[in-house]
């Protein structure tokens, strides 16, 4: 029964399993089909998104004729072959591809959709020829759109557009306004319209167009059509746009033909290409094309690419220009003729159109010649009392050298003199402050309001190669920005020239440079940054002096710069001969060497009421500053535009330390201080420590004693040359003692009128306490910039080639006066040792037997003291209690062993030490240093009862 039951259930289970499997399969197929449709839909959406991005990119790259008409920008002009033009909107092949193999119609439809980009720009190459066929008004409107695009991309300097619109009221008359119609004709684009040209000479014209190659449409254009005169002359056009009512009337050789069936529908046919494709054509009316052509011509004229700009001469001299006539002493204008424009003379006015100018130009463009001509023109119109020039040339200075002799030129700064350039930076700051002070005192808001009695000329600062100057002196950029902001009212004008001003000149400066000049530049961006037009980058290299100028009104105009030749400069200089030179914004560098006579003459000049130093002092305080300083040189103060006496006041400044390398003039500086001190305080007020070291020691000891005893003279100047090395050869104890005495004089002597003036090679060669005691430092030439900074100087004032006496004083450049000679220090003689016959002497000598021989030679009886021989000496002294006592001679050891005898003799005998410190201490028994003996001299110490130690000369032996 169970077997029969299972046999019955088996088929039922199999049938049920088969039914369930079929149901599951149907569900899977439905799910897969749904998922596939969803993925195909997602893929279609992704294709649409990518097509939209591709479409936008295509329209950005190839703008429609409508956008061209609406744009005022003509920066797309180029010299190369014109790019493809946009015929209309239609379907074009897409660059996008979808991988995979189609399995049904939906797949194939999606793949076909991905390969086609709808509503995209339909392009055609004008160089292959384009024909427009249909109702003539529509065909001409479409052809106008093509011609406008050609004119938008093609530079008038490189291409000529030739067409039927030459005279009369014809549909192509608007082309006469294009700047390309009277271009130089290096390459030609032609427009052919059979109805306008007429029927004459059709066959010949058609053959000449057709001979451009094997390109053409089979079976079309057999009859030919007329072409413009350029084709009749045999010229070979690089682009052809033809118009006809029927395709058979088009010339052969056209690659593309557009058949217009209406204003919104046309058919595109290409030779040897795919099937015909529909498109929506772009149409442009005559009025729209005429307006755009006029704006293009105006832009070309402003950029120097129009027909009128090509009429400018290649060369014009300054003397050929008629300069404006300006009222005498008129500070309100700086008008001058500097070149020619299409309608006459180019006149620039920095005072009214500036106040500053930006000039661009690459090498060979004539930039420096333009700047030179501008300055010569200004000098020819205005005297130095109304305009002055500060010329900065960072190409070596040769550009402005021809006009150096003009009285208007206050100075020429070059990159060859770094020190002069740095002085110019400080001087310009002072010039702004000076002009502000003059205007404030006159109650005027600007230089134009000043009375004629006020002597203040406008200052034109011309900087050639501004970029190089900023790279060398970054601080100059802040000064230029300050001048740009305040220069208009103060009468200071900038003319900044650079090969590429874009990115070099700060926005703060360019915002105030309304006047812009661009000669030929290498990049379109540089031209656009300067004059707002790319045309300066399209000036031929063989046209120096040709450029584009914006006179401050925002309208760039082509011009030809004038040239200032030797004759022009000579005539201008002759006319200005006898005129007072312009006031200089700074003085010449300090003279080196500086004599005392020259310093006195300069001091007298400074004291004059019209001198810059007195003028500045009067402007700031009401009266010139008067000091009681010791004048030691001449100080350069570019920030005050003046020179002033360099003075050192012992009372105010304290002791003076002169620091400088070998050959820097340290000794001369000390001599200059001595001369000034002797002149003011008398020769007795100068104490120079020089000569024998014994004399130096005595002078130091005497000066220190005078300070501590308050017996010093009212004014004493102690002069020490080479303080870091003058005591180096002394015994160590004396060296330390001497330095301590110098430090004591510096610190304790100031209150009693004692000052120390010393020199040293290196500041750190002195101890910290000693170098900090000096209140003033005169810094002469140092070996390196870092050495100068470590000495407390300003690194920017360091000069490797400073002349002797040149250096820094109070953070300014100084030239020390050349001293006539040093005051000789007194060198007292050291008396010779005398042995009185009735006096007891105790002699400590390094060589006692030799000393005994000298004593015997002098007629006295020597008695040698040996270690342990004190009893013998005492017996001898007892044997001679009265006259002619013996002279006791011993070495240091003998006297040290006979300490009792030494104590006895110190009260009665004269002690003589002919040796060193060991002998002196053994006999004298004191820690105080005796007077220093001269090295290599026959000197000794003498200590008599109740008397200070004195120095004496050891007698010679009779046989010496």
From TrEMBL:
<feature type="compositionally biased region" description="Basic and acidic residues">
    <location>
        <begin position="199"/>
        <end position="217"/>
    </location>
</feature>
<dbReference type="GO" id="GO:0005524">
    <property type="term" value="F:ATP binding"/>
</dbReference>
<dbReference type="InterPro" id="IPR050206">
    <property type="entry name" value="FtsK/SpoIIIE/SftA"/>
</dbReference>
<dbReference type="GO" id="GO:0003677">
    <property type="term" value="F:DNA binding"/>
</dbReference>
<dbReference type="Pfam" id="PF01580">
    <property type="entry name" value="FtsK_SpoIIIE"/>
</dbReference>
<keyword id="KW-0067">ATP-binding</keyword>
<keyword id="KW-0547">Nucleotide-binding</keyword>
<protein>
    <recommendedName>
        <fullName>FtsK domain-containing protein</fullName>
    </recommendedName>
</protein>
<feature type="binding site">
    <location>
        <begin position="361"/>
        <end position="368"/>
    </location>
    <ligand>
        <name>ATP</name>
    </ligand>
</feature>
<feature type="region of interest" description="Disordered">
    <location>
        <begin position="199"/>
        <end position="230"/>
    </location>
</feature>
<feature type="domain" description="FtsK">
    <location>
        <begin position="343"/>
        <end position="528"/>
    </location>
</feature>
<dbReference type="InterPro" id="IPR027417">
    <property type="entry name" value="P-loop_NTPase"/>
</dbReference>
<dbReference type="InterPro" id="IPR003593">
    <property type="entry name" value="AAA+_ATPase"/>
</dbReference>
<dbReference type="InterPro" id="IPR002543">
    <property type="entry name" value="FtsK_dom"/>
</dbReference>
